[in-house]
Amino acid sequence: MTSTPAKPTRELLFPDLSDDIDARIAWFQHMQKNQPLRFRPEYNLWEVFRYEDVQYVLKNPEEFSVSNKTHLGLPFSFGRADIPDHRFLRGFVARSFQPGNIEGLAPEFAAMVDALLAPARESGRLEVLGELGYPIMERVVGQMFGLRIPGVNLFREWSDQMFGQLIGVRSPDHADVVDLFREQLDERKLDPRDDLMSALLAARRKDDRLAEEKIIHMCLDLATAGNAPLSLLLAYTFQRFCRDPELFQTLRRDPSLIPGAIEEILRFDFSWFNLWRTARHDTVLGGQEIKADQYVVVWDSSANFDEKHFPQADRFDIRRSPNPHLTFGQGMYICLGLPLVRVLGRVVLERLVATFSDLAADPDRPVRTLEQMKDYVVSLDVVLTPSKTAVS
Ligand code: HEM
Fold this sequence. Notes:
12 strands, five-stranded mixed beta sheet, CATH 1.10.630.10, 15 helices, alpha+beta, binds protoporphyrin IX containing FE, single chain, three-stranded antiparallel beta sheet
Protein backbone atom coordinates (compact mmCIF):
# COMPACT_ATOMS: atom_id res chain seq x y z
CA MET A 1 0.00 0.00 0.00
CA THR A 2 1.40 3.42 -0.89
CA SER A 3 0.88 6.27 1.56
CA THR A 4 -0.64 9.52 0.29
CA PRO A 5 1.96 12.30 0.17
CA ALA A 6 1.50 15.10 2.73
CA LYS A 7 -0.01 18.36 1.52
CA PRO A 8 3.06 20.54 1.16
CA THR A 9 3.32 24.12 2.36
CA ARG A 10 5.93 26.65 1.42
CA GLU A 11 7.17 26.72 4.97
CA LEU A 12 8.41 23.16 4.53
CA LEU A 13 10.87 24.34 1.92
CA PHE A 14 12.33 27.20 3.92
CA PRO A 15 14.57 25.09 6.20
CA ASP A 16 16.86 24.53 3.20
CA LEU A 17 17.53 28.26 3.04
CA SER A 18 20.46 29.37 5.14
CA ASP A 19 20.15 32.71 6.97
CA ASP A 20 23.53 33.53 5.51
CA ILE A 21 23.07 34.95 2.00
CA ASP A 22 26.42 33.66 0.69
CA ALA A 23 25.56 30.14 1.83
CA ARG A 24 22.11 30.48 0.28
CA ILE A 25 23.54 31.54 -3.09
CA ALA A 26 26.10 28.71 -2.89
CA TRP A 27 23.23 26.24 -2.27
CA PHE A 28 21.20 27.54 -5.24
CA GLN A 29 24.24 27.26 -7.49
CA HIS A 30 25.08 23.81 -6.15
CA MET A 31 21.53 22.64 -6.93
CA GLN A 32 21.65 24.22 -10.41
CA LYS A 33 24.80 22.24 -11.17
CA ASN A 34 24.14 18.95 -9.42
CA GLN A 35 20.40 18.52 -9.04
CA PRO A 36 18.58 21.13 -11.17
CA LEU A 37 15.30 19.29 -10.61
CA ARG A 38 14.83 17.70 -7.20
CA PHE A 39 11.94 15.32 -6.48
CA ARG A 40 10.51 15.27 -2.95
CA PRO A 41 8.44 12.05 -2.82
CA GLU A 42 7.10 12.88 0.65
CA TYR A 43 5.14 15.78 -0.90
CA ASN A 44 4.89 14.53 -4.52
CA LEU A 45 6.70 17.74 -5.43
CA TRP A 46 9.46 18.85 -7.78
CA GLU A 47 11.74 21.80 -7.07
CA VAL A 48 13.25 23.64 -10.04
CA PHE A 49 16.48 25.64 -9.74
CA ARG A 50 17.86 26.66 -13.17
CA TYR A 51 16.86 29.88 -14.94
CA GLU A 52 15.83 28.13 -18.21
CA ASP A 53 13.66 25.55 -16.42
CA VAL A 54 12.04 28.15 -14.17
CA GLN A 55 11.27 30.30 -17.19
CA TYR A 56 9.88 27.29 -19.10
CA VAL A 57 7.41 26.45 -16.32
CA LEU A 58 6.25 30.05 -15.91
CA LYS A 59 5.79 30.53 -19.65
CA ASN A 60 3.84 27.32 -20.23
CA PRO A 61 0.51 27.58 -18.43
CA GLU A 62 -0.87 24.93 -20.85
CA GLU A 63 1.36 22.43 -19.06
CA PHE A 64 1.62 23.88 -15.57
CA SER A 65 -1.55 25.02 -13.86
CA VAL A 66 -1.79 27.78 -11.24
CA SER A 67 -5.16 26.75 -9.82
CA ASN A 68 -3.81 24.35 -7.22
CA LYS A 69 -1.67 26.95 -5.52
CA THR A 70 -4.67 27.77 -3.34
CA HIS A 71 -3.38 25.00 -1.11
CA LEU A 72 -3.59 27.25 1.92
CA GLY A 73 -7.25 28.05 1.62
CA LEU A 74 -6.76 31.42 -0.03
CA PRO A 75 -9.87 32.76 -1.71
CA PHE A 76 -10.08 32.52 -5.49
CA SER A 77 -8.34 35.29 -7.43
CA PHE A 78 -7.39 35.81 -11.01
CA GLY A 79 -3.76 35.08 -10.11
CA ARG A 80 -5.02 31.57 -9.43
CA ALA A 81 -7.35 31.31 -12.43
CA ASP A 82 -6.30 29.01 -15.25
CA ILE A 83 -6.47 29.92 -18.93
CA PRO A 84 -8.80 31.01 -20.56
CA ASP A 85 -10.53 32.51 -17.46
CA HIS A 86 -7.32 34.25 -16.42
CA ARG A 87 -6.99 36.29 -19.63
CA PHE A 88 -10.63 37.34 -19.37
CA LEU A 89 -10.33 38.42 -15.71
CA ARG A 90 -6.89 40.08 -15.94
CA GLY A 91 -8.17 42.08 -18.93
CA PHE A 92 -10.61 43.93 -16.67
CA VAL A 93 -8.00 45.39 -14.39
CA ALA A 94 -4.92 45.54 -16.62
CA ARG A 95 -5.75 49.05 -17.84
CA SER A 96 -5.32 50.59 -14.37
CA PHE A 97 -1.79 49.16 -14.27
CA GLN A 98 -0.52 50.28 -17.68
CA PRO A 99 2.97 51.79 -17.30
CA GLY A 100 1.93 55.07 -19.01
CA ASN A 101 -1.01 55.55 -16.62
CA ILE A 102 1.11 54.76 -13.57
CA GLU A 103 3.99 57.04 -14.65
CA GLY A 104 1.46 59.87 -14.88
CA LEU A 105 0.76 59.40 -11.15
CA ALA A 106 4.42 60.01 -10.17
CA PRO A 107 3.90 63.66 -9.07
CA GLU A 108 0.97 62.60 -6.85
CA PHE A 109 3.06 59.78 -5.40
CA ALA A 110 5.91 62.23 -4.67
CA ALA A 111 3.56 64.54 -2.74
CA MET A 112 2.20 61.56 -0.79
CA VAL A 113 5.72 60.32 0.08
CA ASP A 114 6.78 63.84 1.17
CA ALA A 115 3.78 64.00 3.50
CA LEU A 116 4.66 60.61 5.00
CA LEU A 117 8.32 61.60 5.45
CA ALA A 118 7.48 64.99 7.02
CA PRO A 119 7.21 63.71 10.63
CA ALA A 120 10.63 62.02 10.23
CA ARG A 121 12.15 65.36 9.21
CA GLU A 122 11.06 66.63 12.63
CA SER A 123 11.75 63.57 14.78
CA GLY A 124 14.73 62.11 12.89
CA ARG A 125 13.16 58.64 13.24
CA LEU A 126 11.14 56.38 10.96
CA GLU A 127 9.69 52.87 11.18
CA VAL A 128 9.93 51.86 7.54
CA LEU A 129 7.04 49.38 7.23
CA GLY A 130 4.43 50.92 9.55
CA GLU A 131 5.10 54.58 8.70
CA LEU A 132 6.02 54.33 5.03
CA GLY A 133 5.41 51.00 3.20
CA TYR A 134 1.89 50.10 4.36
CA PRO A 135 0.58 53.72 4.51
CA ILE A 136 1.76 54.23 0.91
CA MET A 137 -0.08 51.12 -0.25
CA GLU A 138 -3.18 51.98 1.79
CA ARG A 139 -3.46 55.30 -0.03
CA VAL A 140 -2.60 53.88 -3.47
CA VAL A 141 -5.07 50.99 -3.20
CA GLY A 142 -7.80 53.31 -1.91
CA GLN A 143 -7.26 55.78 -4.75
CA MET A 144 -6.60 53.42 -7.65
CA PHE A 145 -9.50 51.08 -6.96
CA GLY A 146 -11.88 53.33 -5.04
CA LEU A 147 -12.02 50.82 -2.19
CA ARG A 148 -12.87 51.89 1.35
CA ILE A 149 -10.01 50.91 3.66
CA PRO A 150 -10.80 51.17 7.37
CA GLY A 151 -7.45 52.44 8.65
CA VAL A 152 -3.85 51.47 8.03
CA ASN A 153 -3.60 49.00 10.93
CA LEU A 154 -6.42 46.81 9.71
CA PHE A 155 -5.16 47.19 6.16
CA ARG A 156 -1.77 45.88 7.25
CA GLU A 157 -3.40 43.05 9.16
CA TRP A 158 -5.30 41.88 6.03
CA SER A 159 -2.21 42.20 3.86
CA ASP A 160 -0.09 40.21 6.30
CA GLN A 161 -2.84 37.61 6.58
CA MET A 162 -3.13 37.07 2.82
CA PHE A 163 0.59 37.15 2.09
CA GLY A 164 1.31 35.06 5.19
CA GLN A 165 -1.14 32.43 3.92
CA LEU A 166 0.49 32.50 0.51
CA ILE A 167 3.98 31.85 1.84
CA GLY A 168 2.73 29.35 4.41
CA VAL A 169 3.32 31.17 7.68
CA ARG A 170 -0.35 31.87 8.57
CA SER A 171 -3.52 29.78 8.57
CA PRO A 172 -6.68 30.68 6.66
CA ASP A 173 -8.64 33.43 8.40
CA HIS A 174 -10.00 35.98 6.00
CA ALA A 175 -13.77 35.90 6.55
CA ASP A 176 -13.88 39.45 7.97
CA VAL A 177 -12.10 40.95 4.98
CA VAL A 178 -14.37 39.12 2.56
CA ASP A 179 -17.44 40.42 4.46
CA LEU A 180 -16.13 43.97 4.29
CA PHE A 181 -15.66 43.76 0.54
CA ARG A 182 -19.08 42.13 0.14
CA GLU A 183 -20.61 45.13 1.95
CA GLN A 184 -18.88 47.49 -0.49
CA LEU A 185 -20.15 45.45 -3.43
CA ASP A 186 -23.72 45.64 -2.11
CA GLU A 187 -23.39 49.44 -1.73
CA ARG A 188 -22.31 49.76 -5.35
CA LYS A 189 -25.19 47.64 -6.59
CA LEU A 190 -27.52 50.32 -5.24
CA ASP A 191 -25.27 53.27 -5.93
CA PRO A 192 -22.71 52.68 -8.76
CA ARG A 193 -19.60 54.91 -8.69
CA ASP A 194 -16.66 55.64 -10.91
CA ASP A 195 -14.52 52.83 -9.52
CA LEU A 196 -13.27 49.32 -10.22
CA MET A 197 -16.00 47.43 -8.34
CA SER A 198 -18.79 49.34 -10.09
CA ALA A 199 -17.09 48.72 -13.47
CA LEU A 200 -16.87 45.00 -12.70
CA LEU A 201 -20.54 44.95 -11.67
CA ALA A 202 -21.52 46.68 -14.91
CA ALA A 203 -19.46 44.14 -16.88
CA ARG A 204 -21.21 41.32 -15.02
CA ARG A 205 -24.53 42.38 -16.50
CA LYS A 206 -23.10 41.53 -19.94
CA ASP A 207 -21.06 38.47 -19.01
CA ASP A 208 -22.12 36.01 -16.36
CA ARG A 209 -18.60 34.58 -16.03
CA LEU A 210 -18.04 37.42 -13.57
CA ALA A 211 -19.82 35.94 -10.56
CA GLU A 212 -20.14 38.24 -7.54
CA GLU A 213 -17.78 36.04 -5.53
CA LYS A 214 -15.16 36.49 -8.25
CA ILE A 215 -15.53 40.26 -8.19
CA ILE A 216 -15.09 40.31 -4.43
CA HIS A 217 -12.04 38.10 -4.55
CA MET A 218 -10.44 40.02 -7.42
CA CYS A 219 -10.77 43.26 -5.47
CA LEU A 220 -9.47 41.54 -2.39
CA ASP A 221 -6.48 40.27 -4.33
CA LEU A 222 -5.72 43.70 -5.76
CA ALA A 223 -6.09 45.31 -2.35
CA THR A 224 -3.81 42.87 -0.58
CA ALA A 225 -1.45 41.06 -3.03
CA GLY A 226 1.27 43.66 -3.27
CA ASN A 227 1.31 45.40 0.10
CA ALA A 228 3.59 43.07 1.98
CA PRO A 229 6.11 42.62 -0.90
CA LEU A 230 6.23 46.37 -1.63
CA SER A 231 6.80 47.08 2.07
CA LEU A 232 9.49 44.38 2.16
CA LEU A 233 11.19 45.94 -0.86
CA LEU A 234 11.42 49.22 1.05
CA ALA A 235 12.64 47.41 4.17
CA TYR A 236 15.38 45.59 2.18
CA THR A 237 16.42 48.89 0.59
CA PHE A 238 16.69 50.69 3.93
CA GLN A 239 18.56 47.72 5.41
CA ARG A 240 21.09 48.01 2.58
CA PHE A 241 21.53 51.72 3.35
CA CYS A 242 22.10 50.89 7.02
CA ARG A 243 24.72 48.25 6.18
CA ASP A 244 26.37 50.31 3.44
CA PRO A 245 26.05 54.07 4.03
CA GLU A 246 28.10 54.71 0.88
CA LEU A 247 25.25 53.25 -1.23
CA PHE A 248 22.90 55.93 0.12
CA GLN A 249 25.49 58.64 -0.65
CA THR A 250 26.00 57.26 -4.19
CA LEU A 251 22.26 57.54 -4.87
CA ARG A 252 22.18 61.03 -3.36
CA ARG A 253 24.94 62.17 -5.68
CA ASP A 254 23.40 60.48 -8.73
CA PRO A 255 19.67 59.69 -8.42
CA SER A 256 19.67 58.34 -12.00
CA LEU A 257 21.15 55.17 -10.44
CA ILE A 258 17.99 54.58 -8.39
CA PRO A 259 16.06 52.39 -10.91
CA GLY A 260 19.08 50.07 -11.35
CA ALA A 261 19.50 49.86 -7.57
CA ILE A 262 15.85 48.84 -7.16
CA GLU A 263 16.18 46.09 -9.80
CA GLU A 264 19.28 44.73 -8.10
CA ILE A 265 17.58 44.72 -4.70
CA LEU A 266 14.65 42.87 -6.27
CA ARG A 267 17.09 40.30 -7.69
CA PHE A 268 19.25 39.91 -4.62
CA ASP A 269 17.10 40.39 -1.55
CA PHE A 270 13.97 38.40 -2.43
CA SER A 271 16.24 35.37 -2.30
CA TRP A 272 13.54 33.24 -0.67
CA PHE A 273 10.76 33.56 -3.27
CA ASN A 274 9.34 30.51 -4.99
CA LEU A 275 6.27 30.08 -7.20
CA TRP A 276 3.93 27.11 -7.26
CA ARG A 277 2.35 25.20 -10.14
CA THR A 278 0.89 21.72 -10.76
CA ALA A 279 1.53 19.57 -13.85
CA ARG A 280 -1.68 19.34 -15.88
CA HIS A 281 -0.60 16.07 -17.51
CA ASP A 282 2.47 13.85 -17.81
CA THR A 283 5.24 15.95 -19.28
CA VAL A 284 9.00 16.33 -19.49
CA LEU A 285 10.96 19.16 -17.91
CA GLY A 286 14.74 19.52 -18.08
CA GLY A 287 14.97 15.86 -19.12
CA GLN A 288 12.91 14.63 -16.15
CA GLU A 289 9.49 13.02 -16.42
CA ILE A 290 6.88 14.89 -14.43
CA LYS A 291 3.58 13.12 -13.72
CA ALA A 292 0.16 14.73 -13.92
CA ASP A 293 -0.88 16.48 -10.67
CA GLN A 294 2.61 16.63 -9.22
CA TYR A 295 3.51 19.95 -7.62
CA VAL A 296 6.18 21.94 -9.39
CA VAL A 297 7.84 24.62 -7.27
CA VAL A 298 10.05 26.97 -9.21
CA TRP A 299 12.70 28.82 -7.24
CA ASP A 300 12.68 32.13 -9.11
CA SER A 301 15.11 33.31 -6.43
CA SER A 302 17.55 30.57 -7.45
CA ALA A 303 17.17 31.54 -11.13
CA ASN A 304 18.23 35.06 -10.12
CA PHE A 305 21.67 33.70 -9.17
CA ASP A 306 22.18 31.59 -12.30
CA GLU A 307 25.60 32.59 -13.65
CA LYS A 308 24.48 32.02 -17.25
CA HIS A 309 22.24 35.05 -16.95
CA PHE A 310 23.94 37.02 -14.19
CA PRO A 311 27.74 37.02 -14.51
CA GLN A 312 29.29 37.23 -11.03
CA ALA A 313 25.81 36.57 -9.72
CA ASP A 314 26.92 36.73 -6.09
CA ARG A 315 28.02 40.38 -6.52
CA PHE A 316 25.48 43.06 -5.61
CA ASP A 317 25.86 45.59 -8.42
CA ILE A 318 23.42 48.46 -8.91
CA ARG A 319 24.88 49.05 -12.39
CA ARG A 320 24.14 45.49 -13.55
CA SER A 321 22.75 45.62 -17.07
CA PRO A 322 20.84 43.76 -18.31
CA ASN A 323 19.18 42.51 -15.15
CA PRO A 324 16.54 40.00 -16.31
CA HIS A 325 15.60 38.88 -12.77
CA LEU A 326 12.47 36.76 -12.29
CA THR A 327 11.32 38.26 -8.98
CA PHE A 328 8.05 39.40 -10.60
CA GLY A 329 7.54 36.00 -12.27
CA GLN A 330 7.21 35.77 -16.04
CA GLY A 331 4.70 34.97 -18.76
CA MET A 332 1.00 35.62 -18.48
CA TYR A 333 0.94 35.60 -14.67
CA ILE A 334 3.74 38.15 -14.37
CA CYS A 335 3.10 40.56 -11.50
CA LEU A 336 0.39 42.98 -12.47
CA GLY A 337 1.75 45.49 -9.95
CA LEU A 338 5.20 45.57 -11.60
CA PRO A 339 4.90 49.07 -13.17
CA LEU A 340 3.49 50.38 -9.90
CA VAL A 341 6.35 48.90 -7.87
CA ARG A 342 8.95 50.42 -10.22
CA VAL A 343 7.44 53.91 -10.14
CA LEU A 344 6.64 53.89 -6.41
CA GLY A 345 10.06 52.48 -5.52
CA ARG A 346 11.80 55.11 -7.62
CA VAL A 347 9.72 57.97 -6.22
CA VAL A 348 10.25 56.88 -2.60
CA LEU A 349 14.03 56.75 -3.06
CA GLU A 350 14.15 60.02 -4.99
CA ARG A 351 12.28 61.81 -2.21
CA LEU A 352 14.32 60.08 0.48
CA VAL A 353 17.72 61.11 -0.93
CA ALA A 354 16.40 64.62 -1.57
CA THR A 355 15.11 65.00 2.00
CA PHE A 356 17.79 63.33 4.14
CA SER A 357 21.57 63.50 4.05
CA ASP A 358 22.20 60.36 6.08
CA LEU A 359 20.47 57.36 7.60
CA ALA A 360 21.40 54.52 9.96
CA ALA A 361 19.79 51.70 11.93
CA ASP A 362 18.14 52.95 15.14
CA PRO A 363 20.42 51.63 17.91
CA ASP A 364 17.52 51.63 20.42
CA ARG A 365 15.09 49.60 18.29
CA PRO A 366 16.51 46.50 16.64
CA VAL A 367 14.93 45.11 13.50
CA ARG A 368 12.14 42.55 14.10
CA THR A 369 11.47 39.62 11.78
CA LEU A 370 9.06 36.68 11.78
CA GLU A 371 10.34 33.85 13.94
CA GLN A 372 9.79 31.21 11.23
CA MET A 373 11.11 33.41 8.47
CA LYS A 374 13.98 35.81 9.07
CA ASP A 375 13.60 37.40 5.64
CA TYR A 376 10.13 38.62 6.56
CA VAL A 377 10.82 41.97 8.22
CA VAL A 378 8.09 43.05 10.65
CA SER A 379 9.58 46.35 11.77
CA LEU A 380 12.67 48.32 10.85
CA ASP A 381 13.53 51.53 12.69
CA VAL A 382 16.01 53.99 11.27
CA VAL A 383 17.40 57.35 12.34
CA LEU A 384 17.70 60.05 9.69
CA THR A 385 19.51 63.33 9.32
CA PRO A 386 17.46 65.92 7.41
CA SER A 387 19.28 67.63 4.52
CA LYS A 388 20.11 71.26 5.22
CA THR A 389 18.65 72.12 1.84
CA ALA A 390 15.74 69.93 0.81
CA VAL A 391 15.91 69.31 -2.95
CA SER A 392 12.56 69.51 -4.73
C1 HEM B 1 8.13 44.14 -4.69
C2 HEM B 1 6.86 44.00 -4.87
C3 HEM B 1 6.21 42.81 -5.58
C4 HEM B 1 6.72 41.60 -5.92
C5 HEM B 1 8.14 41.08 -5.71
C6 HEM B 1 5.65 40.85 -6.56
C7 HEM B 1 5.77 39.56 -7.08
C8 HEM B 1 4.79 38.90 -7.79
C9 HEM B 1 4.96 37.63 -8.46
C10 HEM B 1 6.23 36.78 -8.43
C11 HEM B 1 3.81 37.31 -9.09
C12 HEM B 1 3.54 36.09 -9.98
C13 HEM B 1 2.98 34.93 -9.21
C14 HEM B 1 2.97 33.65 -10.04
O1 HEM B 1 3.43 33.60 -11.18
O2 HEM B 1 2.49 32.66 -9.50
C15 HEM B 1 2.88 38.37 -8.80
C16 HEM B 1 1.58 38.41 -9.25
C17 HEM B 1 0.70 39.42 -8.95
N1 HEM B 1 1.00 40.60 -8.30
FE1 HEM B 1 2.78 41.15 -7.53
N2 HEM B 1 4.53 41.62 -6.57
C18 HEM B 1 4.82 42.83 -6.00
C19 HEM B 1 3.97 43.90 -5.83
C20 HEM B 1 2.67 43.95 -6.28
C21 HEM B 1 1.79 45.09 -6.14
C22 HEM B 1 2.18 46.44 -5.52
C23 HEM B 1 0.57 44.70 -6.64
C24 HEM B 1 -0.74 45.44 -6.75
C25 HEM B 1 -1.10 46.54 -6.20
C26 HEM B 1 0.69 43.33 -7.11
C27 HEM B 1 -0.32 42.60 -7.67
C28 HEM B 1 -0.16 41.34 -8.22
C29 HEM B 1 -1.25 40.61 -8.85
C30 HEM B 1 -2.69 41.09 -8.96
C31 HEM B 1 -0.72 39.40 -9.31
C32 HEM B 1 -1.45 38.30 -10.06
C33 HEM B 1 -1.25 38.54 -11.55
C34 HEM B 1 -1.87 37.51 -12.45
O3 HEM B 1 -1.96 36.35 -12.07
O4 HEM B 1 -2.25 37.84 -13.59
N3 HEM B 1 1.99 42.91 -6.86
N4 HEM B 1 3.50 39.35 -8.03
